[in-house]
């Protein structure tokens, strides 16, 4: 069977292709949209029964104003107004663990509302914690006396609180970048003083935030390459590496471009000292694109600037030759070349095994039978026919799948096919769904499955005649016969309990403990939710969202709110029996926003007031998730919990945690425990959540260690997201938090999803990476899946593949849409198979390889010492490149490093993974930061991992001011920075502007509104809005970069030679890092050595 499709004529689907209005094109390179207009489809031929185009799910309204939400006091009535009935001190924060809360006799008014009913719950056996207080549920917020509970002592200050001791504390402040926020100390509220005191005294500010500062490396300290080990005789690296373009088909290329091969210098052995760059020839070599001349100021090192191989070493006959950084493969050049070569033409998916343009190239996709690379990217588009070949090459065979990827407006979202009651047509044996690769035979009465070869009958209602080529005559009228991606409406058979699902619900669960109140978080959040609730995801053209909402606040106890539309005021119900969580109300908890708007608004107005004087510092965590999950279960729907949480949950409850942060474990065999959850309770809870279709998004606002590794277990296993705002302060962080929250709430999500990847005979999916749960070896279960999440799937051979038939993948995602519709989204992809290794090496995609290898490594640290994980990566990379050298490259000097053309960036990118915070943390990186990044990377797509590991560095003042395109990037190395320029650096999470010390005064004035370099505030996070072309251009660029990313990047302005510069330099990934990460040049040498060892 041959699935090699020729590019078919454009499918004549007549309807305008549905688009997701209002979505930014996310993460597809930074260039403005291609000018190539989408080719309109011709007429849609005739009625096809049941084929309907459903408008896409999505939000078409504009997001809520991005304006600054009102500050805390602006719109909140004073205590004299609507909240006057809440006397001072009568705020219920839940009983302390030793004080039994009194239910007040009679009901008291909540606002002007009638009394709320009192619900009580019988005490049940409590498996955890102290003897049960009877489940206390009260209906009053007002009138509850703060009992004599003394504010608990602050959490034990253990290791990891405050900035690492290795950092000098200094006067300069250190902005919270999110990744590297330092923690202020002393988060406990002031001890409550007199019981009856007015309480009006504001909590004392905690100790001044201790600044972290980095000590710049002493210049002159000898640079020690991190890669040590003896250099074997004859293993000199004599000349820049050469990559071999793979345009010659098998047999392997035999010809090197004359002049690109740099022969070794005979007899010149490298010095046997590890700190030397052995014997490099100084070359301006053109084999990696045009010769790059020295850049302005290139080589004028700042203090601490790397200077490759220039240190004097031990006795040595010849001064070491310098390996020209311009002669080693440049990521910037590769990205630019791909943009120039492939950015103008649409990528048409009709041909099997085509390698798509790079993720950094902006291109349009035309689906002609294979899934768009926005949905699936593979490490190789040509798979070795045998497992022996695959083992020899060591190239991982993996696909990075983003089933619900958001598309640019020019591209159509998948058509929805409705086969009515009969449901989608599938193979009887392997259950694969009808797709363009199925072979119709016997005049169209049967079809042979392209995955398992089973012959199936075509049901009468689906019968169609074949044309002279054996194709069904209606092939181009049916998406499932002509497109790579499409959806089927699912029948009731695909639903839980054979019942169509109810629309999902969102539950907002807000920590109202002392820290959350003090930082201004609660007030900000409640204010924002009032408007954000108008932007819940909607299906297509729906007037309003089908999603219902509910609200919970909590500290050591939980407060549920009845916001039924018939109520004049919301009612609160307190559940203090956190050990045995139950939902105290069903009716009125989950409501339609529009129907209950007045009550919801009233609630959101009152929450910040109710808890304004709280002294409760302890929180619970697992019971909160449990409560949300139980509420969804009771409502018989799937949904999402939005948790806003501040502290390590130390209150007595299931899932209680202790501070176990210990930086001394780094680089020991026990380091892995820092990444593992400290209790199994959260896995158990996650499993229950997945069964209910309860996805958990966690927003963390820690002031100290909160054990992200444990708290993120449930989000991770339910397909949710984690956001972390260290040392959250409204004035510094509200823009970032609001932007993330808006994007997160508005995201289109598939709920209660199951994904299965089927393959044609010969390979099968054996491993999966991402945010999901698996209860068997094949089904990826996702309580929720949004358009940013990917699942990386690894394949292995289980039989011989066939060059003629190729290999097929089919990813089927069953999910519930935001409106409660059950659907199947199908993506198909055909790959080539080869018997020559050279074909494998010329059809690889390095960005996807790195995505897979990073995820593989980041999972590995859970079980293996970090060093083992790093060594495994290095070995695998060396094996991949050695296999190429041995089998595919033309004969050349052993001193020559030869890289496959499409893998020439593998070493530089792999080095970035190796020196990332997870695998090689610096002193400024906290345990929580590492756990956070680890779980983020797990579900990143290829574009995100690309920029995350190799940040974009853009010069801002080099290109003409009137130029509208993004300035060409420069390599992420200090050598590329000119002190007369300003640069922008971003990696998808962080955003910096670096200002050189000699920047022209006019430029400083235009951008910062001050007259000199020294007046620029270091650590500035907002550029002033100035009316001049440069200011507009730079602010516009920042906006467009932010729009491309799924998370808001907070800006940090860094001045040359300022303390903060060390933070910025951390992202100059081609340089040696402070914590010992190798420079690109050093790593390339090391890789060459490894390869030669393998070959010798
Ligand atoms: Zn089959």
TrEMBL record:
Its main location: cytoplasm. This is Protein transport protein Sec24C isoform X2. It is found in: Cytoplasm, Cytosol; Cytoplasmic vesicle, COPII-coated vesicle membrane; Endoplasmic reticulum membrane. GO terms for molecular function: SNARE binding; zinc ion binding. Coiled coil: none annotated. One of its GO terms (biological process) is intracellular protein transport. Residues 193-213 have a biased composition (Low complexity). Gene3D superfamilies: beta-sandwich domain of Sec23/24, Sec23/Sec24 helical domain, Severin, von Willebrand factor, type A domain, Zn-finger domain of Sec23/24. Residues 8-19 have a biased composition (Pro residues). Residues 846-945 form the Sec23/Sec24 helical domain. Residues 501-744 form the Sec23/Sec24 trunk domain.
């Amino acid at each position: 069977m041959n699935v090699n499709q020729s590019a078919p004529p454009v499918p004549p689907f007549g309807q305008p292709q549905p688009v997701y209005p209002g979505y930014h094109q996310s993460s597809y390179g930074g260039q403005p949209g291609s000018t190539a207009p989408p080719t309109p489809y011709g007429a849609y031929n005739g009625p096809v029964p049941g084929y309907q185009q459903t408008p896409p799910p999505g939000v078409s309204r504009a997001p809520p104003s991005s304006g600054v939400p009102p500050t805390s006091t602006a719109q909140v009535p004073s205590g004299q107004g609507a909240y006057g009935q809440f006397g001072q001190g009568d705020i219920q924060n839940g009983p302390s663990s030793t004080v039994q809360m009194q239910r007040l006799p009679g009901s008291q008014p909540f606002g002007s509302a009638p009394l709320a009913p009192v619900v009580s719950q019988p005490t049940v056996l409590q498996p955890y914690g102290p003897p049960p207080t009877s489940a206390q549920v009260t209906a009053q917020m007002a009138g509850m006396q703060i009992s004599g509970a003394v504010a608990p002592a602050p959490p034990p200050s253990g290791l990891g609180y405050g900035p690492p001791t290795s950092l000098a504390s200094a006067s300069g402040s250190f902005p919270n970048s999110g990744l590297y926020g330092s923690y202020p100390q002393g988060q406990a509220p002031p001890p409550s003083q007199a019981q009856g005191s007015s309480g009006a005294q504001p909590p004392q500010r905690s100790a001044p935030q201790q600044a972290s500062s980095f000590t710049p490396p002493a210049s002159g300290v000898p640079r020690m390459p991190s890669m040590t080990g003896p250099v074997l005789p004859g293993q000199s690296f004599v000349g820049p590496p050469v990559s071999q373009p793979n345009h010659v088909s098998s047999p392997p290329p035999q010809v090197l471009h004359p002049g690109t091969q740099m022969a070794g210098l005979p007899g010149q052995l490298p010095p046997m000292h590890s700190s030397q760059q052995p014997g490099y020839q100084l070359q301006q070599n053109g084999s990696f694109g045009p010769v790059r001349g020295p850049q302005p100021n290139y080589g004028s090192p700042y203090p601490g600037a790397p200077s490759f191989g220039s240190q004097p070493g031990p006795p040595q006959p010849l001064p070491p030759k310098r390996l020209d950084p311009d002669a080693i493969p440049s990521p910037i050049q590769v990205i630019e070349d791909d943009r120039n070569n492939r950015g103008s033409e649409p990528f048409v998916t009709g041909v099997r095994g085509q390698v798509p343009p790079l993720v950094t190239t902006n291109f349009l996709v035309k689906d002609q039978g294979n899934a768009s690379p926005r949905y699936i990217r593979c490490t190789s588009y040509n798979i070795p026919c045998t497992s022996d070949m695959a083992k020899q090459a060591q190239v991982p065979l993996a696909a990075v799948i983003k089933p619900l990827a958001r598309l640019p407006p020019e591209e159509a979202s998948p058509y929805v096919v409705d086969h009515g009651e009969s449901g989608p047509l599938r193979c009887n044996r392997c259950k694969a769904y009808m797709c363009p690769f199925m072979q119709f035979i016997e005049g169209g009465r049967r079809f042979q499955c392209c995955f398992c070869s089973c012959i199936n009958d075509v049901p009468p209602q689906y019968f169609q005649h074949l044309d002279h080529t054996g194709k069904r005559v209606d092939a181009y009228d049916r998406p499932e016969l002509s497109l790579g991606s499409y959806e089927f409406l699912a029948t009731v058979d695909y639903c839980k309990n054979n019942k169509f699902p109810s629309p999902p619900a969102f539950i907002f669960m807000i920590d109202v403990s002392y820290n959350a109140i003090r930082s201004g978080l609660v007030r900000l959040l409640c204010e924002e939710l009032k408007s954000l609730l108008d932007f819940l995801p909607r299906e297509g053209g729906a007037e309003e969202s089908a999603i219902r909402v509910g609200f919970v606040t909590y500290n050591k106890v939980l407060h549920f709110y009845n916001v039924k539309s018939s109520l004049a005021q919301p009612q609160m119900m307190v559940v203090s029996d956190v050990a045995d969580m139950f939902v105290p109300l069903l009716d009125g908890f989950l409501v339609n926003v529009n129907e209950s708007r007045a009550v919801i608004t009233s609630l959101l107005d009152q929450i910040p007031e109710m808890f304004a004087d709280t002294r409760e510092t302890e929180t619970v965590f697992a019971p909160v998730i449990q409560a949300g999950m139980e509420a969804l279960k009771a409502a018989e729907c799937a949904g999402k919990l939005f948790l806003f949480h501040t502290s390590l949950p130390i209150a007595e409850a299931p899932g209680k945690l202790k501070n176990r942060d210990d930086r001394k474990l780094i680089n020991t065999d026990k380091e892995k425990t820092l990444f593992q959850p400290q209790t199994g309770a959260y896995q158990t809870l996650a499993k229950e959540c997945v069964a209910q279709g309860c996805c958990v998004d966690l927003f963390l606002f820690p002031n100290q260690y909160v054990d992200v590794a444990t708290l993120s277990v449930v989000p991770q296993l339910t397909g949710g997201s984690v956001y972390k705002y260290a040392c959250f302060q409204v004035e510094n962080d509200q823009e970032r938090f609001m932007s993330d929250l808006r994007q997160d709430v508005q995201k289109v999500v598939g709920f209660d999803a199951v994904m299965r990847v089927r393959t044609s005979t010969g390979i099968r999916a054996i491993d999966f990476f991402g945010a999901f749960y698996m209860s068997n070896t094949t089904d990826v279960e996702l309580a929720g899946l949004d358009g940013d999440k990917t699942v990386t799937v690894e394949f292995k051979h289980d039989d011989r593949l066939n060059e003629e038939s190729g290999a097929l993948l089919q990813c089927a995602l069953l999910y519930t849409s935001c409106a409660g519709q059950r659907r199947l989204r199908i993506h198909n992809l055909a790959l080539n198979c080869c018997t020559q290794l050279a074909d494998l090496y010329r059809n690889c995609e390095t960005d996807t390889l790195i995505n897979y290898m990073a995820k593989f490594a980041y999972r590995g640290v859970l079980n293996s010492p970090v060093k083992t994980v790093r060594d495994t990566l290095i070995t695998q990379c060396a094996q991949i490149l050695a296999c190429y050298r041995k089998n595919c490259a033309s004969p050349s000097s052993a001193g020559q490093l030869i890289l496959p053309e499409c893998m020439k960036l593998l070493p530089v990118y792999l080095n970035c993974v190796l020196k990332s915070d997870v695998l090689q943390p610096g002193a400024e990186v906290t345990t929580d930061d590492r756990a956070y990044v680890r779980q983020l990377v797990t579900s990143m797509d290829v574009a995100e991992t690309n920029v995350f590991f190799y940040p974009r560095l853009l010069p801002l003042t080099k290109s003409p001011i009137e130029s509208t395109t993004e300035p060409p990037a420069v390599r992420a190395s200090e050598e590329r920075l000119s002190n007369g320029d300003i640069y922008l650096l971003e990696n998808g999470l962080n955003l910096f502007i670096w200002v050189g010390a000699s920047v022209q005064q006019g430029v400083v004035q235009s951008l910062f509104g001050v007259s000199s370099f020294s007046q620029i505030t270091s650590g500035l996070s907002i550029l002033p809005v100035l009316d001049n072309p440069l200011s507009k251009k730079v602010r516009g660029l920042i906006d467009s970069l932010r729009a491309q990313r799924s998370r808001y990047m907070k800006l940090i302005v860094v001045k040359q030679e300022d303390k903060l510069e060390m933070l910025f330099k951390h992202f100059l990934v081609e340089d040696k890092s402070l914590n010992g990460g190798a420079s690109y040049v050093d790593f390339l040498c090391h890789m060459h050595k490894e390869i030669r060892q393998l070959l010798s």
